[in-house]
Write a structure and sequence with these properties.
188 residues; 8 helices; alpha+beta; three-stranded antiparallel sheet
Length: 188
């Protein structure tokens, strides 16, 4: 597969306290970890939710998808709550450690004790993870005039097997998450 050959590692940034839960339960998306508002409404700040073991807290990263701005960037048939649920059904990954570290260094994130995890792409593919790519960063609220905007839709996300070298990788996701037992390396 071209994708795994050209992107041998994928990286994820998470709260350091999540490591034991990820080792035990896998890397779970927001839609699996939380119910109700955190899955369909914009999160303006890091949001706590019970971890799968019920004894610890999982921290859901803030989002930048407020109602009015995201509505003007979605296909008309997609309401913002449905889009957020779709987005929150995926775990987001990076093709480079540098990109992952840039997220962790975001001014809104520096107060959190975060860690970067490195996964072998081939192991994710072999485990049957539903890896998807998107040419755009659909979480970024662009400043393009409304008359010239590209409207976001579910089909922006394609199976990684369809990716070809040279195509932009605005986002890489694992739809449904990454199951337990897939090795990863926490990076200092």
């Amino acid at each position: 597969m071209d994708f795994a050959r050209h992107n041998p590692h994928l990286f994820h940034v998470t709260h350091r306290s999540a490591l034991p839960s990820i080792q035990a339960h896998g890397l779970l998306p927001t839609a699996t970890l939380a119910t109700g508002a955190p899955t369909t409404e914009n999160r303006e700040a890091w949001t706590p939710t019970p971890a799968p073991d019920g004894t610890t807290t999982a921290w859901l990263r803030w989002q930048n998808m407020p109602e009015a701005p995201i509505t003007t960037r979605l296909h008309p048939a997609i309401p913002p709550a449905a889009w957020r649920l779709f987005i929150n059904s995926m775990v987001f990954l990076f093709a480079s450690e540098a990109d992952a570290r840039r997220l962790a260094a975001s001014p809104r994130d520096t107060e959190r004790d975060q860690i970067t995890l490195r996964f072998e792409t081939a192991a994710l593919v072999e485990a049957g993870c539903a890896l998807l790519t998107c040419r755009w960063n659909n979480g970024y609220l662009d400043r393009t005039p409304a008359t010239a905007r590209r409207l976001r839709s579910y089909d922006d996300y394609r199976p990684a097997a369809l990716w070809r070298r040279g195509e932009n990788l605005g986002e890489i996701t694992a739809f449904g998450g990454i199951p337990a037992g897939i090795p990863f390396e926490p990076l200092a």
